[in-house]
């Protein structure tokens, strides 16, 4: 894994996400150089400085995009605005819960992504899916299949990601090229659901997965017999649970297994393994709507897949990096071994040979994305050549 900040895994991880999900290495180097010394004081210290440099560069990209627009150059403006949105999200994601600046920076990120979609004129839209008294926000990416109906993959967030970051993964374009549409969602506990609607995470993911499938069934361009589920990071818990209790999913996959997240939290409390974001315990309390750490651990008790996976009766792929420092590799084997009723269960461990050995292949997502895209397309009866 490339450590831009040699002594700081969490800051380096965030930088890698930006690099792998649409950022520019020259821009990111310019952003990060001024905070190299600040990174040496630990994950939680100086995160305001982290925010300022990323936000400042994003502001500059917005100015450049406006100059493009003044000249009628909408495509160029859209490209710059997409990267600005990514950099705003990177800044916001690293801040402590309750920081008032998060609200404003997040709003800027959403605005940039909305405008980018408008100016790039891609077949990508933001949609709202009914969910109880509220809704689930999603980015809907339609494959170019002509008049034919398209299969679709529902892409589920992890603990600290968002639908915009999912949209930026290399996997998105790889699936679209194979004729698979995507629905990148902000499920409860993530993205807009958490920040704008106060929808906190729940262990029984089928309660929000089923309304999503209901919505897909209503879309005339979707092949309702070919709906897949993919989870990234903590989505490695959410997606298998969803597939286990929502039989309309035709297949499922995880990019990073998360078989027993409650056990991982207990290990993190003992300072074992790495954490994904600064101010970690405040973050998880926020995500789960917990009043304190004791309440959080009670809510996390249900976050495991033991006694669940035998309900999966469709093809399922488990992938994991062999040097994942957040979620140990053993959990991938546990998930795979318990898929006893899947007619096709596959396990792929990414090694140094193909790259992608770190958490969710954030060190090198491209070959891993090929593997996932090919497997999903094959299960959903799409082209891989």
From TrEMBL:
Chain ranges of the Peptidase S9 prolyl oligopeptidase catalytic domain: 213-381
The cross-references to SUPFAM superfamilies, in alphabetical order and at most eight, read: alpha/beta-Hydrolases
MF (Gene Ontology): serine-type peptidase activity
Entry's Gene Ontology BP terms: proteolysis
PANTHER family referenced in this protein's UniProt entry, alphabetically: CONIDIAL PIGMENT BIOSYNTHESIS PROTEIN AYG1 (AFU_ORTHOLOGUE AFUA_2G17550), DIENELACTONE HYDROLASE DOMAIN-CONTAINING PROTEIN-RELATED
Q: What is this protein called?
A: Peptidase S9 prolyl oligopeptidase catalytic domain-containing protein
């Amino acid at each position: 894994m490339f450590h831009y900040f040699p002594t700081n895994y969490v800051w380096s991880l965030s930088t890698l996400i930006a690099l792998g999900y649409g950022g520019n290495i020259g821009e990111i180097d310019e952003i990060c150089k001024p905070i190299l010394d600040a990174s040496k004081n630990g994950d939680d210290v100086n995160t305001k400085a982290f925010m300022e440099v990323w936000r400042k560069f994003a502001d500059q990209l917005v100015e450049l995009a406006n100059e493009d627009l003044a000249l009628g150059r909408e495509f160029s403006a859209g490209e710059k605005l997409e990267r600005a949105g990514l950099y705003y999200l990177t800044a916001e994601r690293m801040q402590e819960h309750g920081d008032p600046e998060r609200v404003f920076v997040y709003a800027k990120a959403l605005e940039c992504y909305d405008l980018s979609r408008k100016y790039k004129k891609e077949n990508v839209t933001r949609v709202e899916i009914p969910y109880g008294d509220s809704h689930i926000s999603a980015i809907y990416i339609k494959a170019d299949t002509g008049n034919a109906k398209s299969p679709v993959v529902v892409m589920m967030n992890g603990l600290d990601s968002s639908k915009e970051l999912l949209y930026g993964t290399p996997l998105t374009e790889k699936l679209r090229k194979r004729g698979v549409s995507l629905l990148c969602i902000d499920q409860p506990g993530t993205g807009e659901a958490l920040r704008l609607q106060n929808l906190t995470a729940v262990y029984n993911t089928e309660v929000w997965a089923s309304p999503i499938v209901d919505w897909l069934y209503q879309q005339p361009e979707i092949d309702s017999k070919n709906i897949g589920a993919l989870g990234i990071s903590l989505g490695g818990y959410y997606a298998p649970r969803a597939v286990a209790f929502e039989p309309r999913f035709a297949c499922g996959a995880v990019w990073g297994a998360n078989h027993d997240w409650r056990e991982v939290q207990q290990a993190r409390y003992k300072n074992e393994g790495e954490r994904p974001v600064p101010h970690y315990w405040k973050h998880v309390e926020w995500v789960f709507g917990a009043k304190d750490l004791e309440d959080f651990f009670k809510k996390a008790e249900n976050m495991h897949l033991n006694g669940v996976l035998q309900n999966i009766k469709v093809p399922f792929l488990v992938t994991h990096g062999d040097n994942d420092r957040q979620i140990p590799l053993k959990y991938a084997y546990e998930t795979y071994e318990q898929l006893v009723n899947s007619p096709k269960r596959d396990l792929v461990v990414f090694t140094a040979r193909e790259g992608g050995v770190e958490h969710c292949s954030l060190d090198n997502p491209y070959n891993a994305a090929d593997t996932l895209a090919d497997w999903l397309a094959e299960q959903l009866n799409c082209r891989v050549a």
